[in-house]
């Protein structure tokens, strides 16, 4: 019995050992099979997700480019500011893209080049000589050959973002400089080019260092592992997540090249936050922190961005500049240790300032009012999803220098209008629209006295009575409809009472409460006489005026009562600008335009917003109306402009003041620019300003900076200059008393007056125009 028990004791361990071995082998096999299956599942999902990845790319909105040519009016300060906003760096001698040097008005610039809607503009090195706010010459810096037009890249003024609040600027692998790649690998993954996704040697090295220090001082995640974490995993720090991360990294390395992995990492890595918008990728980070493309950054600047990977919030250079500088210098020291820079270079680079961009980021709210208009027009033509995710490029008409001029004028003038008037302090508001007088392109749009305000856009949405701004269109209608009417025709500026169809009496008055008897049309408009204008309006009728306004482009409801003759109709500055644009453009109606073209993410045209031109006023009536508006400036309610502009620069314009001085308006144009200005209060209470004492001052301040051109007074074929009698009823000669030389439609010339003795009064011919 004892021997039997001994045999049991001998065999039991061996049996259980075999059973445990059998179980262990099967557990291992099943675990291995499970792990392989799990890895296969991960591998399949990683490949599927990587191949189908699609970044939501916001639409990018650009200003008009700055086109520089000989004789262009451009101040040196405005040019320098444009270059600053474009992210150009001032250096002692330009040698690379995005750099310029300046010695007084002598600029040497190395442009970046840009792909516009109509084709690519190559980068080039140019010399621009400015003298007295005029471009004297533009030439190639290398050959000295003249350059006809140097077109600089536009400013990016805004974006339409996705609902994910992510943003990025995609970079291709071939556009990454060797210096950038060396810095990134030196700090984040020195063995990137040789490992298989997981760096086993790096893990051992990090573990050894952490054991020596008794705490975690080094990590061993490769760029591929970081990419897997960013693309597929949460930020939860667990052992299971690290295992998944490693397996995903191995799958990525198995299916994709190092260049593909590097390119994706560079575009995906998180590098900060701008409000609710996440900054992803080095392309956007370079623009956000430095205002320049990644290719133009220096070694210290790239080092800062690479250093921020470990903690974008902790090392945010805007919030923690000292901490960011220290982190950058740690990166520079690491570069010195691996030989990317030598010791003297390290000391010099570590002493440089951060070099962050100055002022607002160019995709912020600087052009809020204009962007409001652009977005309204885009939403009319495109689906919201395409605007937010398809990476469209929108080329607009905004000219940053004109926008700056309009904003500066409002900020300078409006506060002075409140001086000595405590009740007005901070109550006045303003709106400005500047357009190209010929093409109707909107160059600038200001919606508030506060620059960059993203609230109520008064330029588009403030519907206010336009007052005397309507008067030129009454005279225009008369020139079109009354054959015997000319600029000297007589009007009655006398008190009268009119009765409407409802029997209600209307007794208008002049602004100054005085009456002037019989006056010429030219004088009545120049002095903005209400009664004389109403006299003419009644001869035409309200329906005739309403038809003219609609033909010119008015889209608002136009009332059908006599007060319309004095501007009792509500319009926005945008609406008013559209009406006056027709007169400035020789009678052609051209819808105001904020967008030139839209291209897709591959620079293929989607839509061009060409000029839609339609003649709605005959050339003679447009010219004669324009002539009348120049008289407003020369000797009428806008004569204050004579102090600000030389005699060689004829301008045209009209003041406007609504009832109780609630609204101060001025619309004026030169040969190149038209500007509409409104000043008033949001509560519609009296501002105590006329068009001349308020809006005209903002207009003048804006136009002086734009360097505008004269209004053309070259008459069309059916208009000629003639000597007429003072009442405009007869043609006479220059020697006759009271003779006035004015433009006249040759199709409706008055008869010739009898010969007069030089110096004697010419005899007017009765009956040609009934008063």
Would you mind describing this structure in some detail?
- The chain is of the alpha+beta class.
- It folds into 4 domains: 62-155, Penicillin-binding protein 1b domain (Penicillin-binding protein 1b fold); 166-350, Penicillin binding protein transpeptidase fold (Orthogonal Bundle), CATH 1.10.3810.10; 411-706, Beta-lactamase (3-Layer(aba) Sandwich); 717-771, no CATH class.
- It has 22 helices and 32 strands.
- It has a 5-stranded mixed beta sheet. A 5-stranded mixed beta sheet has the order 3-4-5-8-9, with helices on one face. Strands 17-16-30-29-28 form a 5-stranded antiparallel beta sheet, with helices on both faces.
- A hairpin with a 2-residue loop joins strand 6 (114-116) and strand 7 (119-121).
- It starts with a helix and ends in a 26-residue tail after the last strand.
- 41% of the residues are buried.
- Mean pLDDT is 85; it is low at 760-771.
The largest sheet has its strands arranged as: 11-1-15-25-26
Coarse structural class: alpha+beta
Low-confidence segments, given as residue ranges, are 760-771
Radius of gyration: 37 Å
Shape: elongated
Topology summary:
Blueprint: H1 2-51, E1 59-62, E2 67-68, H2 76-85, E3 89-90, E4 99-103, E5 106-110, E6 114-116, E7 119-121, E8 125-131, E9 134-140, E10 150-151, E11 156-160, E12 166-167, H3 178-188, H4 200-213, H5 223-232, H6 239-255, H7 258-268, E13 270-274, E14 277-280, H8 281-290, H9 299-307, H10 321-337, H11 343-350, H12 368-381, H13 384-389, E15 393-396, H14 400-417, E16 428-436, E17 442-446, H15 458-461, E18 464-465, H16 471-481, E19 490-493, E20 498-499, E21 505-506, E22 517-520, H17 521-526, H18 530-540, H19 542-552, E23 570-571, H20 573-584, E24 588-589, E25 595-599, E26 605-608, E27 614-615, H21 619-635, E28 652-657, E29 663-669, E30 673-681, H22 695-706, E31 719-724, E32 740-745
